Every structure is written in structure tokens, then in C-alpha cells.
């Protein structure tokens, strides 16, 4: 949650892969409608997913992207490449030629050719007109209807529908989920573009393998983590079949292992890339959410999952759902809560207030209201628990539970909110990529011990660098580490 409030060989001598749409020799434009939609939605999308990187690294990604787009048959000027400040490993493209890649995904890459494959894959989706297969789904899911705060999207609908929508809301980016055939085709096109651009086409297989390793490790780590992967991050199914096919197709080009990788140039660019949560948007660590700039912290009950967005933290579990956010506050807590409830129901649903009171949570003045509504899904309790952190600053949870349960399932959470001291806030630092040169005597274990994690240090180091268990390091070899960085103020 922000203080300011989604992968995601027609040239001479290159084999043409059967079943793949061939790149066109003449550049073509993109449909005006798609371009206009991409332009319209870009700013809201970027804001929702943490903002866009600028500077040398963003320019580098754009340069690599345009190098690949030249071979797509689409006018390269139709594409726009953006690096998102997101802690989720993904990349995606919208039909209007806007391609997005997350900083987290860049962190698991090991050379420029892998970056080129990722953006080439996304360019391939656009060039192959895969959007047409999901045209109606895209039309039904506009960015304005879904990228707003979940509760804000309730306005104008029945409350029963709203609850159902909360459980099923999907980002417009989830309409970018492709069929298996389309994913394979985009892989094939990406490999073609790699070879045509002079890159090592085998980077396709190593990149897909890196994603597989990262996914497998994340599943192990999640045993002690309450983080929920947002649905927009689930646009690219991973499989060993994709790796095997990519390896086969890259060999078929006759150039596998012999093209450009630009590893050193890539490592120089990726040094300093933030990984995991951006402290400016708050940090999920196990069951706790900590925001150093807002100087607050809370913990979710065991078994509940958190999803951190730009404007809110969403919490979900078997007994209910909740969201932590903020809004305009002028010192009148009753008016503040009323505004929250108005946003929930749009004034169209009557809530019967069954309980309200003022209290104090860890020294913070708080007020709560529990309302009850009859919906098509049965009786539902809607609770707002708000905290006054300052005369002009308040935060709140909205909770939806089964009728009669009120705040009950979330009582430990609402009672865990506390202020952070200046010292505690200062200790929350970002994790960033560093690049180290292996020296004589260095081992996987010794370098992994420098990783800024309390657990799975060796496993994280191996996955980050594409190394196998038992693989020896060579003096002079460059490897990536995740270390603590410093906060920019």
C-alpha cells in the first residue's frame, strides 16, 4: 500500500518452425482501438502496480524491447516498454503494444538474452493478434471497473452482488491469460526474434527454467508466509514442457549457444534493482504487515493471506475478508466511518447497525461500527474499525463476515495495530540486487550467508543465479546477491 495512495525465423540461415506465424517483412500498425485503450489505461495500470521505473535501467529495457520488436512485423514505434515497481515475477502486454515487465522478474534473469526473450515473447502475443481470442473478455473488464479500490467498485450494485464480486474480482490483466497453444506460439516467436536479433536463442529455455525454479522455491517458502499472489500475476502457466520445447526450438535454429548474451552488461544494469516489497508500499513478513513511512504495523490471524496493493492491503481467509486502507479525515471519526460505509454500499443498501463503540488499541484512539445486511447470499456483517493516528490522519479495516460473527474472526488483527517507533521504522530497509565477483575460497555457502534473508539462504542463492546443487564456483565468476539497501528519502 503506497503512502501516496503481470510472459508475466524467417531471416536467412534461420530455420522456420512449423506451425508458427511468420514474421512479416513489412511493418504494420496496430488497430487504432487497441492503441487508444492502451493509452487510456496506462497511467492507471502503472499506478496500481507500484509505479514505473525511470532512468538508465528503464531505457535499457526499452532498447532491448525495441531491438526485438523490429522482427515482429509490427512497426516498432507502436510498442512501449515499461518496467513496473512490482514484487511479483511477471511480464505482460496489452493489445495496443504496451509491454510491461516487473523489476522482480528482472531480478531472476542472468543475462540480456533472457530479458530479450521475455520482451520478445510479449511482443509475439501482440504480433500474433492473440488479443482477438479474448476480445469480449477484455471488453467486459475495463481498467476503470477493476483497478479501483475493491470496495469502490461496489458503488451502483446490489450488496449481495458486491460480496460476490469481492470474492471473484479479477484484474483486467487476468484477461491476458492465454491458451496453451498461444503461450507456445509466443515462445516460438520469441525464439525466432532472439535468433534474428543475434541473441543466443537458448536463453528462452534458461529463462523458462529460471521461472520454474523460482516458482518451486516460492511454494516452499510460502509454508511460513501469509502472502497471496495477486491474480494478475498468474497470466503465464509454467511447465517443464515449455522448457523442453524452447530448448528443442532453439537448437533447431542452429544458433543455440552461439549468440549474444551480454551477461556482464545485464548484470551491471540489474545491480541495485529492488527485490521483494518496496518499503514505500509496506512490507509483508510472515503474518505481519509493516509500513515504515506510515509508522504502523498489524498482524493477520494464522491461516489468513495478505495481498499488498498500491492503495490497500487485502486480507482473506475461511471466515471472512478484510481490507486495510485510508481516506480523507478531518477529525470527525463518525463522518469518516460513514464515508467508508457510503463507499461500500453506494447508499443503495440499508445496514442495520448492531454495535458501535469507541475504544483504544495499543494507545491509539479507535472507533468501530458493525452493520448487518440481508443479501442474496444470506445475512452478512459489515464492520469498519478505524484508528485515529493523528488529528488529520486515520486508517481503517473493512471486514465482511457471516451474519452474527461481526469482527470476531478478525479480533486479533484489529487489536494488533500499533505505532512503530522512529527506530523501528528506520530498520525497515529494501532488499536490492548486488553483484559480487567470486574470489578464491568463496563457496556457495559463504556467499549465500550474505543474502538478506533469515531462511532458505542457499536455496535462494542457487535459484537467483541459475546454479545447481553441488555446482562449484569459479574465481572471477560474477554472481548476484540480495542484500539490504538504503532508503531514499
UniProtKB/TrEMBL annotation:
Q: Where is the LysM domain?
A: 434-481
Per its UniProt entry, which superkingdom is the organism in?
A: Bacteria
Needed cofactors, names only, are: Zn(2+)
Q: Which UniProt keywords apply?
A: Hydrolase, Metal-binding, Metalloprotease, Protease, Signal, Zinc
> Signal peptide location in the record?
1-23
Q: Which GO terms describe its molecular function?
A: metallopeptidase activity
Supply the enzyme class, top level. Answer: hydrolase
What is the protein named? M48 family metalloprotease
Query: What Enzyme Commission number(s) apply to this enzyme?
Result: 3.4.24.-
Pfam families reported in the protein's UniProt record: LysM, Peptidase_M48
Which InterPro entries does the record match to this protein?
LysM, LysM_dom_sf, Mito/Outer_Membr_Metalloprot, Peptidase_M48
Amino acid at each position: 500500500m503506497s503512502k501516496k495512495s503481470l510472459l508475466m525465423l524467417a531471416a536467412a540461415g534461420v530455420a522456420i518452425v512449423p506451425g508458427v506465424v511468420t514474421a512479416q517483412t513489412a511493418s504494420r500498425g496496430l488497430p487504432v482501438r487497441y492503441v487508444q485503450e492502451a493509452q487510456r489505461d496506462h497511467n492507471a495500470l502503472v499506478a496500481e502496480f507500484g509505479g514505473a521505473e525511470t532512468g538508465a535501467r528503464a531505457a535499457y529495457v526499452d532498447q532491448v524491447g525495441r531491438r526485438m520488436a523490429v522482427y515482429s512485423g509490427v512497426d516498432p514505434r507502436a510498442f512501449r516498454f515499461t518496467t513496473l515497481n512490482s514484487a511479483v515475477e511477471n511480464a505482460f502486454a496489452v493489445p495496443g503494444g504496451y509491454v510491461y515487465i516487473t523489476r522482480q522478474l528482472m531480478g531472476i534473469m542472468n543475462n540480456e538474452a533472457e530479458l530479450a526473450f521475455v520482451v520478445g515473447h510479449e511482443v509475439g502475443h501482440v504480433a500474433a493478434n492473440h488479443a482477438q481470442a479474448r476480445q469480449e473478455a477484455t471488453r467486459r473488464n475495463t481498467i476503470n471497473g477493476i483497478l479501483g479500490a475493491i470496495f469502490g467498485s461496489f458503488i451502483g450494485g446490489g450488496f449481495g452482488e458486491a460480496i460476490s464480486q469481492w470474492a471473484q474480482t479479477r484484474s483486467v490483466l487476468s484477461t491476458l491469460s492465454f491458451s496453451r497453444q498461444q503461450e507456445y506460439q509466443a515462445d516460438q516467436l520469441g525464439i525466432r526474434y532472439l535468433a534474428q536479433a543475434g541473441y543466443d536463442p537458448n536463453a528462452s529455455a534458461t529463462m523458462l527454467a529460471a521461472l520454474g525454479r523460482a516458482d518451486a522455491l516460492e511454494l516452499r517458502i510460502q509454508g511460513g508466509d501469509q502472502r497471496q499472489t495477486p491474480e494478475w500475476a498468474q497470466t503465464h502457466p509454467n511447465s517443464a514442457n515449455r522448457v523442453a520445447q524452447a530448448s528443442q526450438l532453439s537448437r533447431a535454429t542452429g544458433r543455440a549457444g552461439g549468440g549474444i548474451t551480454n551477461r556482464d552488461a545485464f548484470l551491471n544494469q540489474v545491480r541495485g534493482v529492488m527485490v521483494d516489497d518496496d518499503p514505500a508500499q509496506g512490507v509483508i513478513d510472515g503474518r505481519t504487515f509493516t509500513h515504515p513511512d506510515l509508522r504502523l504495523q498489524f498482524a493477520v490471524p494464522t491461516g489468513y493471506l495478505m495481498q499488498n496493493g498500491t492503495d490497500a492491503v487485502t486480507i482473506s481467509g475461511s471466515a471472512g475478508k478484510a481490507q486495510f486502507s485510508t481516506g480523507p479525515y478531518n477529525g470527525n471519526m463518525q463522518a469518516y466511518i460513514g464515508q467508508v460505509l457510503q463507499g461500500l454500499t453506494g447508499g443503495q443498501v440499508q445496514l442495520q447497525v448492531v454495535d458501535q463503540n469507541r475504544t483504544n488499541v495499543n494507545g491509539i484512539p479507535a472507533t468501530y461500527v458493525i452493520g448487518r445486511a440481508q443479501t442474496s447470499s444470506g445475512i452478512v456483517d459489515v464492520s469498519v474499525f478505524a484508528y485515529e493516528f493523528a488529528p488529520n490522519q486515520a486508517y481503517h479495516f473493512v471486514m465482511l463476515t457471516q451474519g452474527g460473527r461481526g469482527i470476531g474472526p478478525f479480533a486479533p488483527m484489529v487489536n494488533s495495530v500499533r505505532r512503530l517507533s522512529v527506530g523501528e521504522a528506520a530498520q525497515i530497509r529494501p532488499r536490492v540486487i548486488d553483484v559480487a565477483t567470486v574470489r578464491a575460497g568463496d563457496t556457495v555457502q559463504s556467499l549465500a550467508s550474505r543474502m538478506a534473508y533469515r531462511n532458505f539462504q542457499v536455496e535462494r542463492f542457487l535459484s537467483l543465479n541459475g546454479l545447481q546443487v553441488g555446482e562449484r564456483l569459479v574465481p572471477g565468476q560474477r554472481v548476484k546477491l540480495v542484500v539490504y539497501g538504503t532508503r531514499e528519502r
